[in-house]
Amino acid sequence: MDAALISTERLRVAFAVSNLGGRAKAWAYTREATTPDCEALLSEPAFRPANYEYRQRSRFLACKQGKRELHEYIQEMRVLAAYLVGNPLPEHIKVTVFMDGLKVGPSRTQLFRMHANTMEDAIQIALQEEYSHKQARTLMSMRQGHNSSTVAMQGAPAAGASTGPVPMEL
After folding, report:
1. Which residues of 14-35 are buried (b: 16+ CB within 10 A; e: fewer)?
2. Where would I find the Retrotransposon gag domain in this sequence (predicted)?
């Protein structure tokens, strides 16, 4: 199909967005969730690929953190949730999928302790826990570094003193 043959500007934009790929496609579909005009454009079934909703829902349900950083996983979950804007999943399912996808660590443990009502609540809890954990590690490493340098300074020989064994006089 040629874009020049499409009659309205609105449908041309929908056609252009439907032909995007990679990061541009992710950006456009994320933008779709926040801009009401774009949502209406892509709601045209003619511009969606076959099994679009099924594929997006499957990608959302199968999403895992893996070796990625927490913020990268969160970004992907938000993008995939934005794809489902036409027929969204219930919030409790989004929370469960988000928690299940997290790798084992302090964020996941804290989420199982607390109850999040929405995926955004779960994201905030995970981010706060990761921040707290990183702060605690930073403080511990600073204290250990300070203590080891203090011990090294106390055990250091005075200037001009020999550092080897001292012979005994008989």
Report:
1. bbebbeeeeeeebebbbebbee
2. 15-103
